[in-house]
Amino acid sequence: MIHITFVITMKTIERTCAIAYSINLLGDKWSLLILRDVILHKKSKFKEFVGSKEKIATNILTNRLKFLVKEGFLELLDPKGFKKNKQYIATDRGLSVLPIIMELYLFSIDSIEESVLNPTQIKIKKQVTTNRTAFEKKRKTDYLKFVESLRGS
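User: That's the sequence. What structure does it adopt?
Assistant: Structure tokens below.
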């Protein structure tokens, strides 16, 4: 019997091309979807990420969260706390990904039939396509208030 093991690692990319470096950091779908969930849906706990409609496997989620923390996109609110209670929040670097997420949204939203969108998604589509800048600003402000409430400030 032959056993084949696949190991997925993040290759170290020499920082000579900004696009290659960015893709190394954010080129997998999970990193962007986790950051989307953190910033736009205010998810902060492991079980909330697992509950996302994309159904990320727990081992992949664990690895991506560790990677995003290591690379400075997320931070643990209480790194010494119990595993069940750990909360992840976006750093300034994580928040800087919001325009990329919005570009990806705008790139494809018109190719999705509105009949498959729920009322909230239709409302968001209208807000984003009408005034993207205002939408981004409000979401960022709302997220920062959410983080303040998590910190107990």
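The beta strands are 74-76, 88-90.
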